[in-house]
Amino acid sequence: MIEVDQLTKRYGPHTAVEDVTFRCEPGSVTGFLGPNGAGKSTTMRMICGMTPPTSGGATVGGRPYRHLPNPGREIGVLLDASAQHAGRTGRETLTLAARTMGVGRERVAAVLDQVGLNDTAARRRVGAYSLGMRQRLGLALALLGDPRVLILDEPANGLDPEGIFWMRGLLREFADRGGTVLLSSHLLREVEAVADRLVVIGGGRVVAQGGKDELLAGAGTLVRARDAHALRLTLDRAALPATAGTDGGFVVRAEPGEVGQAAADAGLVLTELRPAGSGGLEQLFLTLTAGASTKEAVR
Ligand SMILES: Nc1ncnc2c1ncn2[C@@H]1O[C@H](COP(=O)(O)OP(=O)(O)OP(=O)(O)O)[C@@H](O)[C@H]1O
Fold this sequence. Notes:
Blueprint: E1 2-11, E2 14-24, E3 28-33, H1 40-47, E4 55-60, H2 71-74, E5 75-78, H3 90-101, H4 106-114, H5 119-123, H6 131-144, E6 149-153, H7 161-176, E7 180-185, H8 188-192, E8 197-202, E9 205-211, H9 212-217, E10 221-225, H10 228-237, E11 242-244, E12 250-252, H11 256-265, E13 270-275, H12 278-289, H13 294-297
Parallel strand pairs: 3-7, 3-8, 5-6, 6-7
Antiparallel strand pairs: 1-2, 1-4, 8-9, 10-12, 10-13, 11-12
The structure holds adenosine-5'-triphosphate.
């Protein structure tokens, strides 16, 4: 179990993460989703004791990361696949880590096999690895201590479609055996395919969280009016929480009837009014990523 409680991180006047609270339960994969710069890495680094929070805290299995006597045996972490010593071979990297963690050498062969790095790859220096191979080695390091919890920052980066499919299977199996997985991505589709729960972060704050199916299904009402500005004012006046899309529409966290009534009371002409459905989360995510590569974000 991972518990994140009101985590906040400020760098001078800049707030990177603000009041972030969520939990990841055993037996589930939690997708931590947000555009570049949203605060995913900073949150994960705070959970793993690498960045001290300005306020709030996080525990893994009931204890702060720094209080775990042998963290690698309890939590597998992949935060930066390029962090490994370029001059060592993959096998040396794992053997050294196994010694530090106090796990048997047989785990090295087991995890190399698990992540699909063959003998030739294991004997090659990490400096000569492709990004995809580094991600596999990073995952091998995370799995080495046979932990119950995995915390992975953008693990699919650099993997080809087959590699991404393989990784999803690995994470699904890990969770199905009772493990807890937190993985981040800036791609909605990538996380949607494997996660049970989603935590969506934008501008350092959690903007949505819940079960994936619930978030994808009950994502409010999509509404559009001839006069988008008047609609915004009407929604604000009626205290209906709305997120503006990039195309003039709004996703409102309320029933269509309630939204329609507010518009009718204000004498507005609506051009669209319907349950947002799966488009709701997509719309919310597009709004967050507006200005960034929006097409890529929902790919
Ligand atoms: N050491 C630091 N000093 C100052 N600002 C920082 C530092 N680390 C992160 N930030 C800022 O905090 C914000 C959140 O960054 P973070 O790396 O956590 O986002 P992210 O969601 O992981 O994005 P990405 O996918 O691009 O890594 C950004 O505005 C970033 O510039």
